[in-house]
Amino acid sequence: MDVRSLPVALTAIMKQRGWTQQQLGRELGVSQAWISRVCNGVADTGLARAKELLARVGWEVRFTPSVEEPVERREFLSAAASVVFVASAADSDPYLDPDYVRALSDSLARGRYELGGLPLAARALGHVKRVAHLQIGSAGHELRGAASDLMYQAGIALYDAGRLAQSEHAGTIALDLAHQAEDAPARAQAYDALSRVSLYRGDPLRAVRHAQRGLRIPDLPPSRLSSLHMRLGRALACVNGSQREAREALDRALGTSGLSPFAEAALGGDVAIGLSRLGHYDQADRLLREAAAAMAQWSPLFRAQYLGRQVQTAVRADEPALAVHHMHSLTRALPFVGSARVNARVTAIITVTAKWDRIPEVRTARENLRATLPAGSSSA
Fold it and tell me: Over 70: is that where the pLDDT of 239 sits?
């Protein structure tokens, strides 16, 4: 049973167990008068206190996005979280509870969008270890699908943390579980993750194959189709002689309709990365600028990623003034995320802009960027 507020949760507990307000107060360690005030909307309590009280009667607090995606709910995390109070299953392994596993997926996704993958790496590895050794046995498709999604989110967090071998391992588990669950969107999602990891590891041909396998899956939702076309286009852009096919795939991604504002902005930024590699600098800069502006309200990580790509696009276009402008924006964004990929991009930017170091504005921008890198990061 899921309810959406503390008063409703308390009322549900009393009804479920046949308790009066006085009996519930004794179980929670509070007065009957307090129970009455909360149920009538007169009194309130903080979230931490609510979690503590409800745990005493076997209930727990979970968070879920209050706005659902039409096809892929964890890809849109801009809405304020709504609190869900649910009865807990303390007598069994929580990883055998599909709702619990999906809540873990949501938590990883929110954390990555807000903080980056580095702060989440240990947690993600813990989830991979638990799921890899989980005795699912005769568990139904729902649990396998939920576990596949958790492995996808763990793999993407590890990818952003720079742990590529572990990320690929999580993606492989996600794909296997999706097959067992007969979950076509989850299979496509896993192929998407494996494609991105392969490309980042410098194997574009393998990235192409993963994206193509995902695109062969029938009846995929628009968000997954667009992402796979984008992955295919970006991988083909790194394969000699495949520029035309790469542009066609990227155009197909951009032509997808039915996306949420978040998904549309992220797709534009990701497509722009491929367009920049193909030499379409003006269009790439425009899409990256729009994506970075949109992500200011949704994801500090994505915003930093797109700002870094804007700098690299300006460098490829040989426009130092534009590069300086984007470097200053990137400098302001970096303290709010922990991402090995973003740190590596900053290091690459510092290196590649050394050719303009005679320009005072470039020199200052490079120094400011260098100062934002965490201790231990290498820079030229």
Answer: yes
